[in-house]
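note to self — DONT lose this again. spent like an hour looking for the file last time. sequence + predicted structure for the chain T wanted, 486 res
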Amino acid sequence: MSVLRQRVFSFILPILVIGAVTAGLLVVRQRSASIRAVFFLTVTMLLGWALYRYDTSPLLTGRRVPLGPEGHFLRAVAIAWWFAAANLAALIVDRILGHDEASREACITSDLVSGAIYIAATLIVLNFVLLLPVNGLLATSGIIAVVVGLALQNTLSDVFSGIAVGIEHPFRVGHRITLGDGVEGVVAQANWRSIRILTDGGDIATIPNSVVAKAQIVNRSFPTERRSTRLQLIRPADEPVDHVLRILDHATLLCPDVLLSPSPSATILRLGIRTNAYAIDFFVSATSKIARTKSVLLARIALQLRYAAPAADDATIAEALISQLPVFGPLGRDKRSDLAKQMRPRSLHPGDTLFREGAGDDRLYVIAAGVLEITRGAEHGAKTLVGRIGAGEYIGEISMLTDAPHAASATALTASVVYEITRAALAPLLQGDHNLVREFERSVQRGLGLVDRAVAAQAGAPPPEPSAMLNGIRRLFGLSPAGARS
């Protein structure tokens, strides 16, 4: 009975060995590379120790391997050892060659070397462990390889094209590229058969390597993510060309996302009988900013052109300016007209100072043309650019309303025209119009809460307590304190 039991277990042991290794592989295949490496190293050492105890090796050299149940057990152990060792070697190769996941060449090389390791392990098992005639198998496999090669010629073309592209290394995972057929996006994955591109529309485009190898590849991320683009527009032919070009140059200065180096340029594309075509060529720091920058640039151009249009006199220009400012919304047309007549234009040359940081002032300045640069800290030798403002914007209201010194300096970056509103001209309107008072208080309390006024808002530094500041405004203009009954 004991002999029968020994023979039964001798037949079952090979199955148990192979089954245990296979089950362990299924358990750890989803784990991290380090856990899998420890598992295969442990299995290799245990199986190698078992073969050593039987005075043999994974090649089944040493004493003669019996043909009975014990031989089946040893062959099962040797088969398990070779495939565990192949998996361990493949993990090591992947760690050495494929550690850089962004490297396309490393990934393809790692896959090819790992495939060669598995093929070599299979041939060794067939030849040395199972004692099969491998030479005849190789001869037969040559014919099979020709048939398979013809059937998979497109796939093989992708594989070798992937190797060629990997050697050239024109991009990496995470780079933004443009292919010759117009596909543009960020490379999400690159493998031995294809690349996957995440387009700006959120789609995944899968491009075979054979197509990539033949296409013109433009890498938008190397050597820098900086991107050049062009904005075209049409203007009436009766507008002076130099005037339009100057407006376009001013608009680029007012758009914070437009890079100043390389400098943007405005050019004429076409002169016609009815219309002229213009273009602005500029750079942005990243592709994702192109659409937003074009939108802001168009808005700036429209604003500059609106206030740069010829007018009959200064009062008409001034009235057009204050009519567009939300803070003067409560004023009726007659009051706006009276205020406009009291506004005085002031011309500035490039480099002229409108007001200096720390200086007191009783004027509100509305820009009619040109670009002003707002800076801080000039008196300490550490000049900091706060921003730029242009036509249709105003500045200086916090100093005028609170009698506090300017917290920044304003300097003309280009030839500019500024209209001044004095405190004396504004006081009667504030005293007689509570809605106007609330508009100015709201403007100050929200940090001049308009999106297009965010830069100019930084030119004034409100006191820490908003309520104290607002009461100060009311006292300065002889109004009731905030919260008091009128």
